[in-house]
C-alpha cells in the first residue's frame, strides 16, 4: 500500500478541522479590519453613543434661521425701494444742476456783466446760489454712492454695511430737502417756513413710527393676540423643518 493511500484512510481529527477553519475565518471576538466600524460594533454587541442636541438648542437654531431668512427677504425688498428713491433723487438733482432755479442768462451783457449760460441766481442771490449748489451736489453724489452700493448684492448682507447705507440715504434726503428749500423761493422768511414745514413733517413721521412700535408691542402682550403670534411662530418653524427635509 502506498503512502498516499494510507493518508486518505486516516480520518481527519476535529482539531485539524478547527485549525483550518480558524485560519481562513476572521477572529470572532476581535474586530474585522475588512468590515466597517458599525458592523464590527454590531457583531461585538457594542453601540457607539451619538451625542444628542437639546430641544431648546434646536428650537433656537430654527428661530435664528427663520430670522435670517426674514432679514434677507426684508433687505431684498428694501434694496428695490432704495434703488428707486436713489435713481429719482439722482435724476432730479442732475437736472437741477444743469438748469438751476431761475434759469440762466440767454445772452451776454457787458454793461450788466452778464455772461450767457451763467445762472441768474448766481448773479442776483450769490449766497443762496452757493447753498443750493452745495446741497444739490451732496444729494447728487450721495445718490450715486447709494446706487453703487445697491448694485453689489453682497453689500447689504451685513448690518454694519446697512448702517452706512442708511446714513448715506439720510444725508441724501436732507441735502435734497435743503436744496429744494433754498432754490424754491428768494426770501429768507419763505425759506424758514419751508424748513419748519419739513421739520414738522419729519417729527410727525418719527413720532408716528414710535407710537406704532409701542402699539405693536402692547398688542403682542394682549392675551387675544398671543395665540396668533404662537401660531405664526409654529408655522415658521414647520416651514423651516419642511425645507430641511426637502434639502436632505
UniProtKB/TrEMBL annotation:
Segments forming domain PGG: 73-186
Polar residues: compositionally biased ranges: 1-27, 38-64
Region (Disordered), start-end ranges: 1-65
InterPro entries in the record: PGG_dom
TM ranges: 80-98, 131-152, 164-182, 188-209
An example Gene Ontology CC term for this record: membrane
Protein keywords: Membrane, Transmembrane, Transmembrane helix
Protein's name in the database: PGG domain-containing protein
